[in-house]
From TrEMBL:
One of its GO terms (molecular function) is acireductone dioxygenase [iron(II)-requiring] activity. Gene3D superfamilies: Jelly Rolls (2.60.120.10). This is RmlC-like cupin. It comes from the Eukaryota. InterPro entries: ARD, RmlC-like_jellyroll, RmlC_Cupin_sf.
Amino acid sequence: MTPWQILCTFICAPHENFGQIKPISMSVRTYYHDSLPGATNLPHDSLPPAPSDRIATLGWQLWMLSGDNIDKQAAEIATEAGYTKPTDKINVLASETIESAGTESVEDKVKMTAKLQASKDHYTATTSSMVLIVDGKGHYDIEDPIENKWIRVILTPGVLMHIPQGAHTRVAFENPDGFLDVLMWFNENVAPSDIDWIKGEDTHGHPVRLNYLNELSTQR
C-alpha cells in the first residue's frame, strides 16, 4: 500500500495526474446548496450529499487527512500530482480589512479574494492548485455549471482539495471571528504573477473559464 492510501480517508475518482489514487471512504462533508436567499454563512443544507463521482467529474478532488503531520501528507499527495511549489501558511481572517492585493504576493491575493466574498460573488482561479486546511472552519461552494447548482464543502482541518482552474467557487465563514489557515501548492512552472483570482462577471469571458467549460462539455 502506497503512502497516499494510508494517509487519505477520502478521494474522488481520478482526474489529471490522480490516476493511481483510488477511492477509499468519504469523510469530507459535501452537500447540494439549497439556493435559497439568506446570508452566505448560513448552512444552506438541502440534505442530499453530493456524490463523489459528480465532484470528480467537475475536476475536483477531495481528501480528508488526519494525524499530526497533515502538512507532510498533503505535500506528498501534491507532489505526486505534479504540484511541487508550496506557499507559506496563509492566515485568512473573516474580520480582516484589506485595501488592495499586491501584484506579486499570493498571500495578499488569497486574502483579498476571501474578503470579497462579502458581496456573495463567485470567483475563479487562473491556475490549478492544491489547498490544505490546517486550522479553522468555513464553507466552500463549488459550482456545477452542467446542473446549474452549487455544491457546498465543509472546510475543517485536514481537508485537502485539488482546485481546477476556471471553476467558479465561493467561500464563507460561519461567524465574524472565523478564520482559515491554509497551505497551497502550485505547479513548479507557474510564476507568482500568473497566480490570481478573478471575481464575478469578469470570469465569464476569461480564457481559463472558457477552457474549463469546454473540457466539461467534452465529458458529457
